[in-house]
Design brief:
- The chain has 147 residues and is of the alpha+beta class.
- It has 2 helices and 7 strands; from the N terminus they run H-E-E-E-E-E-E-E-H.
- It has helices at 7-16, 132-146; strands at residues 29-34, 37-43, 53-57, 60-67, 85-92, 103-107, 110-116.
- The longest helix has 15 residues, at 132-146.
- The two termini are 34 Å apart.
């Protein structure tokens, strides 16, 4: 129930290729379904957990995080290839997810977000009636919708 296509992310990728790697910090992720739960793992190595923020609004899950480093006065920086600053990522959620019960944990540089499937979206068995039961069911449903 996660949206697999993010047009803005694809747009960024197209423009990243011709002019070299982007200086915009990225947060690579994996998303998969495990039973009745969707799992999103986001790589955030070297982040202070206090700087990580996960929010939801309607059908959008947003993750913000910040990583900083300042050399100590007198240090001679030989290489500085890691990215620092604010990181931001959004994942568009489909319907049928229980966004009231999202959980997140951070361990070994990976933020794990779990989103359960809403009860209304889970598969369920429908009892099959026959004969008189079927007519009574139709009459009950039509009287309930008239009210």
């Amino acid at each position: 129930m996660l949206t697999r296509f993010d047009p803005f992310r694809e747009f960024d990728r197209v423009f990243e290729r011709p002019w070299g790697p982007s200086r915009q910090p990225t947060m690579p992720l994996d998303a998969y379904r495990h039973g009745d739960t969707y799992v999103i793992n986001i790589d955030l190595p070297g982040f202070d957990p206090a700087t990580i923020e996960v929010t939801t609004e309607k059908d959008v899950l947003s993750v913000k995080a910040e990583r900083s480093w300042q050399p100590v006065e007198g240090d001679e920086v030989v290489a500085a290839e890691r990215t620092y600053g604010q990181f931001f990522r959004q994942v568009f959620l489909g319907g049928g997810l229980d966004t009231e019960n999202i959980n997140a944990s951070y361990d070994d540089g990976v933020l794990m977000i779990t989103i359960p499937l809403a009860e209304r979206a889970k598969p369920r068995k429908v009892e099959i009636g026959h004969g008189a039961e079927r007519r009574e069911s139709i009459e009950a449903n039509s009287t309930a919708s008239d009210s």
